[in-house]
Amino acid sequence: MKKAFIIAPAYLGTGETVNAIVVAEQLREKKVECTFIASPYGANFVKDKHFDCFVYTVNKEKNIKIVKDMIKKENPDLIVVADYYLFYLSRELPAYMWVGFLEDMDVTTITFDSIGLGREFPSYSYVVIPELFPPPRHTIRYRVPPFVEAIIYPSPPFSDSGSAPDEHCGRLYTEDYTTLQHNKKKIREELGIQEDVKLVFHPVPKWSLSTLGATCPLYHSLMTDIIGLYLSWLDARIKVVCVNPSQQPLYTRGTIQVEEFEFLPFDLFMQYLFSSDLMITDNLLSATMGKAILNRIPVLLLGNSYSAKEVFSLDIEPDVLSLTREYVEKGARIPLLPFWTTFKESYATRDIQNTFMQEELFNAREVYQIMKDILTDVTTQQELRQRQDEYIQKIQALPSMADIVMSFL
Q1: Is residue 337 part of a domain?
Q2: CATH of the domain at 336
Q3: Please, which residues bridge with residue 120 across strands?
Q4: pLDDT tens digit string along 227-240?
Q5: How many domains is the chain partitioned into structurally?
Q6: How many other C-beta atoms are found inside a 10 Å radius of the C-beta of residue 80?
Q7: Among 106, 234, 339, 395, which has the minimal tally of Cβ within 10 Å of its Cβ?
Q8: Which residues, at least 6 apart from 240, have a Cβ–Cβ distance to it below 8 Å?
Q9: Does 386 reside within a domain?
């Protein structure tokens, strides 16, 4: 039996780790034994799927020694990094872990790249969360070392791999989504959600809570209360299910029904997604958003390009203005949250951009109208589903990520 070691450097986010688990399950079906090396938070998801997993400690040197010993003892046929840019964010692994370490292991190594950074990128060009990366020193660039034989981009969000021979694009999921349909009514019955209730699913990333919680205090509470306010304007029965990986509730205002979970097992998480009428996120890089689109779930991405001063000069509803002012007076800071098109030029041309909706958080009338149309207007729902179908048809012709990984074993 072939063996693969999957190194998941993420210590806060889950998207890259969950993507790796999806591929590992497919590899297991192909008789490949997968062992994970993951953070304590990521290990929750790994163990839920019954993979062997070494969990990082807080001691970087100890982690390196244990991982090196594991590789020497188990002698894997392949090392998969999920994803390489997370080395620069990890608290438990050195940023340059593969320099003088993975390279010396003499094991075929490949990496996933869920945000399309490619072989190299300058630190100062990472426009989404530049504060997470070290400041540019001279002309420092982050590089994938030459010994890494391939970069694999997942679809979604990508739909092609460009022209480089060592870059590949593969379907994350093997199901034929052109015909796959979930029994939404049955899932909702199992979850106890009544038929006339409009279910809004709002997963909040742990990494976002951590980073923005430090730089922009109270922002998530402000955002969720604004979302709750918009939803309360609708003439419909609304229930929000929020995955909030913290011990402080986020939705604290409004008249809508809200249920918050600090953690949901993967399968239950997906059940709530499949049964929802709308997914809301401010996470530009959401892996869940891709899964929603494949299952024809409407997604609304809320960004922000206004400073606090600019927000107060907008022509917006008094309730929104009053709520925002109250939070700012309590110390809330409003971050700039870029939209899909501002992240990277290559993203702006991707077909997936037409499969979801995006709007400024503080554009109250526009957000309300999107919510109203997508939750109540059949024509709007059909038009969005048609665009999602076109994207699904295109990516269905791609090889699976698991098949690409198999080609290196």
Answers
A1: yes
A2: 3.40.50
A3: 143
A4: 999 999 999 999 99
A5: 2
A6: 27
A7: 106
A8: 200, 201, 202, 227, 228, 231, 251, 256, 257, 258, 259
A9: no
